[in-house]
User: Fold these one by one.
Assistant:
Number 1:
Amino acid sequence: MDPDSDPREGGPEPVDERTTLLEYLRAYRLTLQMKCADLDPEQLATRSVPPSTMSLLGLVRHLADVERHWFQRVMSGEEVPRRYQKEDGGPGGTWSGAVADPSVVDEAWNAWRAEIAIADRFLARADDLAMLGRTPAGETVPLRSVLVHMIEEYARHCGHADLLRERIDGRVGQ
């Protein structure tokens, strides 16, 4: 991609902690989307290497669950079920359910975008990075730590996405 047309560039200048964290999260979300761009359902569901069941589609499903968990369950205290994972934290259908079916692909993207929209609405209302959420285990966690964790989660999985995409069609990241 031409660096001048990279949608990750040109966001808010990271002049403070909040802007920095939100900008990094925005950029990594876009990176995942870019890694999946222009692929058909079969390509999105292509597994990495045995015995792994990881795929780009599985990553989209996983990150939808991660967004839901941290922003709705932990920070907002809502009792919403996981979308794909088992309640015990096991992977369940996150990876195995990522099959080359256009309706599965559409549902995954819709879920991921919906979870990001919910998270972004929460973040727009949250004026204090020290505000506390509560994990299912009862531990408190500040919003600041959740944002750092989300950046780490996306960064890790965007690395996976780089390798998956290169395996599919040779496209590599910048």
Number 2:
Amino acid sequence: MTGRLWGIGVGPGDPELLTVKAHRLIEQAGTVAWFAARGRPSNARAAAARHIRPRQPELPLYYPVTTELPAGAEYEELLAGFYDEAAERIATVLDGGEDVAVLCEGDPFFYGSYMYLHNRLAGRYESEVVPGVTSLLAGAAVLGVPLVCRNETLSVLSGVLSRDELERHLVDVEAAVVMKLGRNLAKVRASVAAAGLLDRAWYVELATLPAQRVLPLAEADSSGAPYFSMVIIPSAEASTR
């Protein structure tokens, strides 16, 4: 029999935010796989480290690039090849009868790298996804301000979008979260200002981790931001009710 594939959301970084189910499956898995930028520690593994057994086999999956780039044929081809190779490495373990738990920062299906493995493997193997606390909800929690209320809508945007696209989306939002800041922070801040939202926009970095930072977006250093950072624009109504 082949092994089972588990995509496990480990949350935004605080080990105490893993679910009970995530704990159980990590400890039960024959192999634990995790993503990391080459030369850097895995944030997903760090969040789950206390639940990885001594001498439990691990399968590191190192990204071929360390910065998310605008969509382009060369970039997409590079990532597709990486996910193809990673999926086949996991398939080899599954074919040997071992269950594999793939750790994923936040939630596997919300900007999660696991989803690309799921698309390649779920049709071939028994699989299950364990949801995790998303970084945007962790960000709202450490900010201490409600995001939306009643019948309002929340827009989630990628900082990789062009400035024109960001401004077009932001101008009509009731509440918004902009993910994937990195070197896009200056562009995002300019877009938020152009949409007239800078006065209620917040910058949240490394939410739930010891080094977390929360400050008004207008005061954030525009030179760049860590991967685990976001801009949160809470609903004006939700913040005052």
Number 3:
Amino acid sequence: MIPGALARIEGPNLTLRLIRPEDAGYVHVLRTDPAYSRHLSEVRGTAEEQRRWIEAYKAREADLRELYYVIERKDGTRCGLVRLYDIGSESFTWGSWILDRNKTRKAALESAILSFGAGFDGLGTSLAYVVVRIENEHAEAFYRRLGMTEIRRDLLDIHFSYPRSRFDAERAAYMAILAEERAE
């Protein structure tokens, strides 16, 4: 059983909830739309195959080996996805992050802070890893602004680490920014 603190994460403007099989069509559209998926691993197949993948994933979720979230605005409109995977006792990998045209103004910051909080607080880990495609300059700049450290680079990707201590030191300031957006 997934603890409630990990099943649904509430922020000032967004909610992260664990993915369900009925989200398969939404995931398939995002993962196959080049506007949203060009920096992610290629997905082939149908929405039904995506549904079966989600159903199989639920076993990894139950074992806290992987957490896949749908990002929603407060009115329930889906606006993205994010995943924590390769979850171990000390670390996790953060990725499969997509935000669509329905996102809020500060959705990138909020979805990142909420999902990293799930990994650090909810899972009790001390380190996150992020892998970003080299050509994804926008995401790379975002990760550097958050204070992630580049640990290596290969022909395709840049690998970052993000310690919980850095996240904890900055979280209150980020949440204040997000609370301001809610007030606007």
Number 4:
Amino acid sequence: MSSIRLGSCLCGAVKFEVRGKMRSVVNCHCSLCRRWHGHFGAYTGALLENFTLLEQRGLRWYAVPSGKAERGFCGECGSSLFFRKKEEGTDAIGICAGTLDKPTGLTTKRHEFVADMGDYYELDDALEKWPRGVRVTEV
């Protein structure tokens, strides 16, 4: 598997490249992710030093209500793309796994914030299930 991965929004107004290691996919079931994605969010992550925006004309950022993080999306097609903490010294970015071109070479590691998950679905897989969690990375 190549250590270079490409990704984009639906319309191509945001394109990116990741070189090197990426975190396994984590499914976040918090109410913010469910509202942002329309269901739970599946995120991988990368160090910022390995992440490059190749096209960013559509990129917009939405500050989450706490003001401690923001979500990146395409202002042209509406695709959900990124999650990043706004704390000083943050060196990683969360990337919506579905925005990556195949083959990703990634696997899903766990579910997080299952204590907050929607009441319209069940988790019946063998993945770890954390009542809470950390939303960005452990790259």
